[in-house]
Amino acid sequence: MSALEVSRLTHDFGGLRALDDVSLEARPGERLVILGPNGAGKTTLFNAITGLLRPASGRIHLHGEDVTRLAPHARAQRGLGRTFQITTLFPGLTVLDSVLLAVQGRDPARFAFLRPQAAFPHLRERALALLAEWDLTGRQDMPTRLLSYGEQRQVELILALGVRPRVLLLDEPTAGLSPAETATVAAIIRRFPRDLTLLFIEHDMDVALDLADRVVVLHQGRVLAEGSPEEIRRDSRVAETYLGASHA
After folding, report:
1. What's the order of all strands across the beta sheet hosting 197-201?
2. Beta bridge partners of 61
3. So what's the pLDDT on residue 118?
């Protein structure tokens, strides 16, 4: 059974067809990269998969269940997680409090509105364990707004893991990072558990092809190519698309 299956998705913005009969499949534990120049439909595809927009046609299955008409929170409860291209942290919360909110998100304690968070020590234990695992214990009491941009990206990845997704979508996780920060974030992604299925959009082709098990290339809302990183490197259509985009 596929972890995620997208079948013939179509979506229009007015007279612009952003997705045109897009189909793809992610296998359990796979690292699937979505490549394509600006305007190819990558983020629109992620928004359709996560329920932020409803496609005009097509179906989306998560671990065999049709989730096409489910709201975003219902998909999240079924194990679908996502990060965004622009950081979405609460600037006034500390790093620890941010991670606590994430780990509470899929825990029964989220319904205990009349009890303080301290009444659930297992949440704090899990949050601290996540920070220790990803080498951010020294930042736990710092407001997220005071972190470097690279550290904010790291915290976002930890938050995404905190809700224990089975399928995680990463929207340009290295966008805006320095080469050193990009290497750090790429190393974190490599350490993600292999039972977690990853789909990610990445603007840096070298990073993308290094992390990917398989690649899907979008162009003008359609699937242009699909294959292993080596097959994509050798595909003349992909080279022409990126060269054309870079000279536009």
Report:
1. 80-82, 167-171, 197-201, 31-35, 214-219, 222-227
2. 5, 66
3. 65
